Amino acid sequence: MASPFAPRAQRATMYSKVGLETDVGSASPHRLVQMLFDGLFESMNLALAAIRNQDVALKNRQLSRAVRIVDEGLKSALNMEAGTLAADLNALYAYVCIRLTQANLRGDAEAIEECQRLMAPVREAWSKIGPSVTEQRAA
Question: What residue ranges define each of the domains in the chain, with the CATH number in brackets?
Fold first, then answer.
């Protein structure tokens, strides 16, 4: 079965585009996606704090960053020719982008929390496959 994710060079470019800070060049393809998830959750958490503190500018920056991470990073990294997993993730990512945009427009903490609940299992599953990916690369 083909991988549902785009080639490494494309993922590295997308990762750099969304402005996450780290050494992208030496990261494995798996680690690049993991860093995108980390950045996404960091932005959602900061946006929630900004809503509580009524810091509209910070909320806007963090939710815009979160949408870019999902749309330009995670979603764009999918290999849509790989089958239903990629298609399902694409639909989930599109929905999350819509909800985060709505959260930004409305200052809606519940929408952000919904996105966290939806993305947490994907992030967790991605983390769990890390050891097997590392073993395959070593072999």
Answer: 29-130 (1.20.120.340)
pLDDT in tens, the chain (139 residues): 455 666 655 665 665 555 545 456 677 888 889 999 999 999 999 999 999 999 999 999 999 999 999 999 999 889 899 889 999 999 999 999 999 999 999 999 999 999 999 999 999 999 998 766 555 555 5
The pTM for the full model equals 0.79
What span, in angstroms and rounded, lies between the C-alpha atoms of 125 and 77?
17
Residues ≥6 apart with Cβ < 8 Å to 102 = 108, 111
What b/e readout covers 17-42, taking b as 16+ CB neighbours within 10 angstroms?
A: ebebeeebeebebbbbbbbbbbbbbe
Q: Could you give the CA distance from residue 126 to residue 11 in angstroms, rounded to a whole number?
A: 15
CA pair distance 89, 18, nearest whole angstrom: 19
User: Taking Cα atoms as reference points, which of 113, 101, 102, 116 lies closest to residue 68?
Assistant: 101
